[in-house]
UniProtKB/TrEMBL annotation:
Residues 34-144 form the Phospholipid/glycerol acyltransferase domain. PANTHER family: 1-ACYL-SN-GLYCEROL-3-PHOSPHATE ACYLTRANSFERASE. It comes from the Bacteria. Keywords: Acyltransferase, Transferase. The keyword Transferase applies. InterPro entries: Plipid/glycerol_acylTrfase (IPR002123). It holds the Pfam family Acyltransferase. It comes from Apilactobacillus xinyiensis. The keyword Iron does not apply. GO terms for molecular function: acyltransferase activity. CDD domains: LPLAT_AGPAT-like. This is 1-acyl-sn-glycerol-3-phosphate acyltransferase.
């Protein structure tokens, strides 16, 4: 209930301040649960991905520090957000999202780079996809990168790519992991160019 309410609220707010987003290649999203993987470019791009993928519902992963505030913790828990200890990650970092994907009707949104300020892809998404036997669906967001910029009504885009399937029999050694990372990065680059051939992401935090 909380998730559905927040999704409707986010849709109304984003439409009022920024207009209608452009969604491309939504037909590439497979049936059933999946893991949406994307470069993390702004704090609100998870909301745009969730809106673009509607009516599918998602679980999210967020750092445990956000759960310290009791009010925010209540909202996060009821909005399907999973707590992650980035400093001391344990088995639950993998087990909980796998359980969500296999035991519920929720898909998962993961940013392989972990943060908005890193371009290095990490292996968590691949391992979760393999254990849950669910595909990775690459996607990109292009548009305003700050709340202030949203009010400029600059066009926003979400573009989906072809699913990436991981054979459960494949051993995720360094070589296999690197191959999957290369597939994801190639997909991100392709999707960005489909929206804007001249696109180049600039981390606004590094411009200050």
């Amino acid at each position: 209930m909380m998730y559905s309410f927040l999704r409707v609220l986010a849709r109304i707010i984003f439409f009022l301040i920024n207009g209608k987003m452009s969604i491309r290649n939504k037909n590439k999203i497979p049936e059933g649960n999946y893991i949406l993987v994307a470069p993390h470019r702004t704090w609100f791009d998870p909301l745009y991905f969730a809106l673009a993928s509607s009516p599918k519902k998602f679980a999210f992963m967020a750092k445990k520090e956000l759960f310290k505030n009791p009010i925010l913790r209540f909202i996060l828990v009821h909005a399907n957000v999973l707590s992650v200890d980035r400093e001391n990650p344990g088995p639950s970092v993998i087990k909980e999202p796998v359980k969500v994907l296999t035991k519920s009707d929720l898909s998962l949104i993961i940013f392989p780079s972990g943060t908005r300020h890193s371009s290095e892809l990490k292996g968590g998404a691949s391992l979760i996809a393999k254990l849950a036997n669910k595909p990775l669906v690459p996607a990109v967001y292009q548009g305003p990168l700050s709340l202030k910029a949203l009010f400029s009504r600059k066009k926003t885009y979400v573009n989906f790519g072809d699913p990436i399937y991981i054979d459960r029999k494949v051993k995720l050694n360094d070589e296999a992991q690197k191959n999957i990372e290369n597939q994801m990065q190639a997909a991100f680059d392709k999707l960005d160019k489909e929206i804007n051939p001249n696109f180049k992401y600039v981390d606004i935090s590094k411009k200050k």
